[in-house]
Amino acid sequence: MKNILTFLKNKSVIGGITMVLFYQVAFILIFMTGYSAIPKNMNEMTVAIVNEDKQAGTDIAAGLAKQLPFKMVTDLPLDKAQEQLNDRDIALIIHIPQDFTKQLSTSGTKAKMDFFMNQSNPAMVSSSMQSVVTQITTNLNNQLATQSAQGVFQSMKMPAEQAQKLAAEIPTKLDANIVNTNPVPAGMHNQMAPFFLTMVSYVGAMIFSMMMVGAMNALKRKMGFWQAFWSAQATNAIVSLIAPLIGISIYFLIQGGYGAETFVKVWLVHALELFGAIEFMSIFSLLLKDKAIFANLTLMLIQTISSGATMSQEMMPWLFKIVSYISIMFYTVQTDFSIIFGGGKLPEHLLGLWIASIASMIICLLAFYFVSPKEAADDQEKHAVA
Question: What residue stretches are annotated with the ABC-2 type transporter transmembrane domain (predicted)?
Fold first, then answer.
């Protein structure tokens, strides 16, 4: 028992226990808060209705706009809506073609309604929109009940016999024509690939940044103040350029199907991500010393949600949404979606990643500039007292 108490009083063991407790609290609080948005915030997603039919389509479009629990857009032409779908600003397009009423009133012909979905999205968005399409098709078929439909057709001065025949076909009259853009290869491992590739670099950067700051502080007296800093930055750049090749090569070798151009683009994106993440987490290593792990781990857990890999940005709770605008993981994941699977806003997200990385480096430089002289003064004071 005495030996056990000796271990429990050891600083390393106390630190380990603190980390075990902290990780549980941080992980559960962050994930319970973040993932509470599903399905609570699904009404924040945007669905567009493009109606080109001025007869039956008008009433159907109005009914859908009123019934669907999403942000509805009804004033966009199809080409503009498709642009926003490609940019992931719209989750689903419901297109009612110009000849919808004609198809609906023609015996033996199914009336097609087009549903456009961008598969280059978080899996939750794609699966949710697929469920919405199924529900819309079923509900519309049910709403066009035999008796009411027969009355509608007769009011159009259609012969009673033809109206009755068409009404009997109504339960299966609608045909959902699903158009998937930017298809993702089958398998959850492919849908989550942007997140996995981003996460491994970020976790590696967290560990490396602590070691690099320790080495930089140890060598700055020998090398000189700024020589140590800029040599560390050069080392960070070299490591960032080479290290991502391992994980990315494993993914591309296992998955296959992608060309050399895609490989190089993904590699360079994650090289930039790794460099930016090292700089970002070095800030806390400089300011908080050995307590930096608490800040870096917390911010990493927050970014697993604010990265946009599991839910779209508009669905995120307010804290995670704010973090996403300055998150290295968010810009990397979104860039990966566009490069690997397709989609818009590639320049915008790439620019965001550059800005976040450069800003992190500047703040890291300032932290080093203001913290290091203070450390040197404290060391001199200790030596003088000794």
Answer: 21-368
